Amino acid sequence: MNDDNQTDKIRRKRNRSRKTAYLRFTTGLRQLTTIHRWKNVFLAAYLLLAIVAWLNRGKLLFGLDNKFMLFPIFTMAVNCLVALLLPLGLLCLISALGTPRKAQKIQDRLIGAGFTNHAQEPPLLLVRYHLSLNPKITIWEFDENETPLSIWEDKKDKLQGALIDRIIKITQSKNGRRIIIHTVAPRLTIPSVMHWQDKYLSKESFILILGESLTGQETVNLAKIPHILLGGASGSGKSVLLKLLLMECLKKDAEVYIADFKGGVDFSSIWHEKCHLCFDENELLELLTGLTDELQRRKTVFRKTECANIDEYNAATNSKLKRMVFACDEIAEVLDKTGLSKEKKELISQIESQLSIIARQGRAFGIHLILATQRPSADIISGQIRSNMDCRICGRADSILSQIILDSTEAADQIPKDAQGRFITNTGVVFQSYLFDDNEVFFNNGQTGGVPNSESKDAGNSNP
Asked: What is the DSSP letter of 256?
């Protein structure tokens, strides 16, 4: 039995050595072609040296007279030796470029941290570099080491200890053979208070700025991820983030509609000028019905013009069809049917039905939902609505609300109990939202909103 174990260890060691050599060579090629193209300088220098060595190979004959009887044999031997060594040297150079500095030290740290596979082997570090667009981020690429991504995520703390960096994201390459880890220096922190500046407003189509994370600004593109679900306990800053997003929508010339069943006290008078606010269920149903009617109208127009979405339609027809954003600061208060009369339950069901239509179909037609809640109740928001809210953000919350919003307890685990304006996305990114003064950001901005309805053919200030 001991002999079999020893044989198996030798076989695994030999296979790992072959795999390591192959990975070092292929990573070296990637360094030259995609990651660090400036390293082609080493390749060019080597090729120049190879040409010089080939041209001067005759000097290796040590001045032998060509009349010497074995001269042709020595010449052939030197030619073969140089021809063999030059490609071998090239292979070694490429493999060296595929070997990161301190790669062995990282492997030793991983072993010390207990991060190994079932054969007690640590993962092989393939490449380490700083992201060109954001030098704060360090990218580490490892071979997958016969270890599924879930294990890498579960043992994140051990990895952080070995890398001596703070891990912000762990992903897997498309072919599944590499694990890619994004880290930042452990000394980096997110400020607890940040103020909005108009220069932050994205110039791209409908990208909204959420706040700042350890790696820079965190954004959401409503053209691709059309609906947002916000969660957070009272005082977590949820309403401030909601207003930040709506302010950006207004500045991007969108029509904004807000359902506020607290009488509008959270929205100063300037919001009443620039948006349409509704304060009761009957008015809300009328508003949502108008939005779904507009959705159907846009669907017909887009089909006639053979346009797949609002951006294509505006580009093809030179129109200025506006996006429409509906927001509700406490959607659970609206949809909760507990203790209601039969008539009231029917009204709420109709509201829920209209929201479901927008959630399912709104993306292409430029009609979006931003819904917020602090109620930890899974049965309030229907599955059809919730499953279409692809961007989910949670502030300070208990584990139940965090699970409802994010499908995990990360908000409860990672957001401090006294934090305000600190949030985490369903992709695991922690960020701090911006504070702003309503009158200051809207100064001299006369944009107003209106109520869509089935009688108006000019919704969005356009004439398709």
From this structure: E
Buried b / exposed e along 376-400 (16+ C-beta atoms within 10 A): beeebbeeebbebbebbbbbbbeee
Same-domain check for residues 88 and 122: no
Residue with tokens 């398709």: 464
Residue in 285, 369, 289 with CA at minimum distance from that of residue 334: 285
- Which segments within 160-289 are labelled E, that is strand? 166-172, 178-184, 207-213, 216-221, 228-231, 255-259, 276-278
Predicted TM-score (pTM) of this structure: 0.73
Token pair 């880890």 is at which residue? 181
* Structural domain of 130: 103-184
With tokens 């791209």, the residue in question is 204
Among candidate residues 310, 303, 312, the one with its CA nearest the CA of residue 368: 310
Residue 66, in any domain of the structure: yes
Strands 367-373, 324-328: pairing kind: parallel
Q: What's the mean pLDDT in 405-425? A: 90
Q: How many residues does the chain have?
A: 464
Domain endpoint, select from 97, 130, 157: 97
Give the C-alpha separation, 9 to 2, whole Å.
11
Q: Are residues 263 and 321 in the same domain?
A: yes
Averaged pLDDT of the chain: 84
- The number of domains in the chain is 3
If one counts every other C-beta atom within 10 angstroms of the C-beta of residue 176, the result is 10
Q: How far apart are CA 260 and CA 281, in angstroms?
A: 10
